[in-house]
Amino acid sequence: LHLIALNSPFSGDMRADFQCFQQAQLAGLKSTYRAFLSSHLQDLATVVRKTDRYHLPIVNLKGETLFNNWESIFNGNDGQFNIHVPIYSFDGRNIMTDPSWPQKVVWHGSTANGIRLVSNYCEAWHTADVGAMGQASPLKTGKLLEQNIYSCSNQFIVLCIENSFVSDPHG
């Protein structure tokens, strides 16, 4: 399952699932992509289908492994990944080095176990108000789910996860 960043940073007011869907389509990807965020409807840990949570690796745009499987992101180590494996945007840029994302911080709105934090998810990702708060993680630590609180006015990285595996019949 691919983990790919949106092509630009976003404040706490975002239509993230729609953005993930749209940018995946524009990039020619056939699978469905959902935002790597807890929302008012769903906890982050349940975004990927149950049948795909244990046996499929989580990889970047180029197929390099970030996590052994979806469940391993939520095993209590704050989503630790190898920082030497880049995370790319849908248009192929390395978000860790590209200046389009000046702050190397990723929104998630979740606990370390992938459960929504209603007090810290920018009012279900509908506000960029400076007084509203969102949970996010600085990527330089090599963790996707570090528990830091930021103002929703910040422009941070938004990740998208392929939430259902579709095998390519022409592959």
Automatic annotation (TrEMBL):
InterPro entries: C-type_lectin-like/link_sf, Collagenase_NC10/endostatin, CTDL_fold
Organism of provenance: Piaya cayana
Coiled-coil zones: none
Cited Pfam families: Endostatin
Collagenase NC10/endostatin domain span: 1-166
Signal peptide residues on this chain, from the entry's feature table: none
Name of the protein in question: COFA1 protein
SUPFAM superfamilies cross-referenced by the UniProt entry: C-type lectin-like
